[in-house]
Amino acid sequence: MNRRFGGRTALVTGASRGIGRAIALRLAAEGAKVAVCYRSDEAAALRVLDEVRGLGAEGIAVRLSVRERPVIREALAATVSALGEIDVLVNNAGVNRPEDFDRISDEDWDEVVGTNLTGAFKVTQEALPKMRDGAAVVNISSVSGQYGGPRTTHYCVSKAGLIALTQNLAIFCAPRGIRVNAVAPGLIATEMASAAKGLGVEEKILLRRMGTTGEVAAAVAFLASDDASYITGHTLNVNGGLHLG
Fold this sequence. Notes:
Blueprint: E1 9-12, H1 18-29, E2 33-38, H2 42-54, E3 59-63, H3 69-83, E4 86-91, H4 106-127, E5 131-140, H5 144-147, H6 153-173, E6 179-185, H7 213-224, E7 235-238
Parallel strand pairs: 1-2, 1-4, 2-3, 4-5, 5-6, 6-7
Helix pairs in contact: 1-2, 1-7, 3-4, 4-6
């Protein structure tokens, strides 16, 4: 596999499973040193770290709760100390709590928006001083942030906000040559995708199948690499044509 990230350091939030795990492994396979960040499941993160090292890459597993600035700062300091300044930041950590709009509690709203959107804001704000000029940020949004969906108002709002954050960060970071882009997955075969079962989403996918975490990871690797050196402020759809269905 092409080693586009040889000698570079990547930090991936929510990397202990699903899409985050696939991103961490893809970047490691392409030569990156990877900080495998997790909120609570240390055992799962350590398993991913073993996989990273099995690919011949350096890495660490570090606790990072995207809603807690002190924890974010500790995780960033640990990453820089162990692996060097950050070249690639992937804001992947996310949650969903499907519920009808009139039954969404303040607590659920705060958790979903606070994790998916405010969490990315906090991590990026804290990380930028520790990132090299010419680095890359990739935010994991969703097709739900572009077109909405049933029983996921808070999730859709958070992912739409992440697209707006991506565009505004691209403007702010441009003087340093830091590119900021987003990937908007559709229905991907993960635990979180179970929330979409029975909602008629699969029938709307033009390619008639769910996507894989590896396909999302490939898109992230492209946007984070020098192959996308003239792309910033962009949201790349990885949804099998769901947005056209």
